[in-house]
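Hi Y.,

Following your request, here is the sequence exactly as I used it, all 136 residues.
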Amino acid sequence: MARADYKYQITIPFQDIDAAGIVFFAHMFRYAHEAYEHFMSEIGHALASVISEGKYLLPLVHTEADYKQPLRHNETITIELGVKKVGGSSFTLQYRFVDDAGEIRAEVETIHVTLDAATKKKISIPDELRTALSGD
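Below is the corresponding structure, written out as tokens. Let me know if you'd prefer a different format.
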């Protein structure tokens, strides 16, 4: 993970547990997205502002996850978010789901592309967002 300086903590709620007593897999993407939203606010690019300004969009074009150990109700998990890559029109984020003992329980990766809000065509990442993502 390139830049892992953002951490977001969650406590697993009961409603996210499946019949096997563990987190239903799809919720991991929701948790990652919550961390992403908070991260974007932290770096000065809150998604609500990005959307309301109407200049560009940041849709997901790829996601993947590796589940290493199950997550259970009421566990506290720290999501460590890192910027893996910043390209011309896309960026890749990595998320590590870490328990209180420091064990990595799951990993998620997302790729976002920058689109012009009006035309929905791919554009270069705006300079101010590129700088924020790069941590410069």
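The first helix runs from residue 27 to 42.

Thanks again,
Q.
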